[in-house]
Amino acid sequence: MTSPATPLDQAVSAIRAGGVIAYPTEAVWGLGCDPLNQDAVEKLLAIKQRPMDKGLILVAANIEQLSPFLGDMTVDQYQLLQARWPGFTTFIVPASQQVPEWIKGSFESVALRVSAHPLVCGLCEAFAGPLVSTSANLAGQAPALSFEQVQTLFSPILDFVLPGDLGNASKPSSIIDISSGQVLR
Hints:
Shape: globular
Largest sheet: 8 strands, mixed
Number of domains: 1
CATH topology: DHBP synthase
Strand order of the largest sheet: 7-1-2-6-3-5-4-8
Distance between the termini: 50 Å
Helix content: 25-40%
Number of strands: 8
CATH class: Alpha Beta
Radius of gyration: 16 Å
Order of helices and strands: HEEHEHHEHEHEHEE
Structural class: alpha/beta
């Protein structure tokens, strides 16, 4: 007798099937998919009504999951990532050759974050890799702050909504360009 699939199992199955899911993050609800599946990323962008050239953030459970996407950096820059992750900072870093254009958009860099949110980490661990992480909203509108808002905005066009609680952050992660040190958000 097999046990019923947990919500986490259902979310991972949806992602592996090329779907787009919603899940709670530290501050807002996010939309996610497999970053290496171009069709899934294009579906996510269509749902958000967001242009591809803006690029997307990848979130992971640990820095090792992001290693294939990291381009050339100095030792000091890499140590900064290690010091701030897991945490609530997204870094813009040089993109490796493995970062697809549908992720980096019109840039030669990529936005990466190692989350400290237990559900996000569990999702990335169960998927065995990073996920696209973008706020659950239509481009230019406020992000969803509850399961109910996600359902209202996106049901039935999402493939799965992973129930859970937001973290205790009051606003989305800060974004820092690792090359210049400039805080972009």
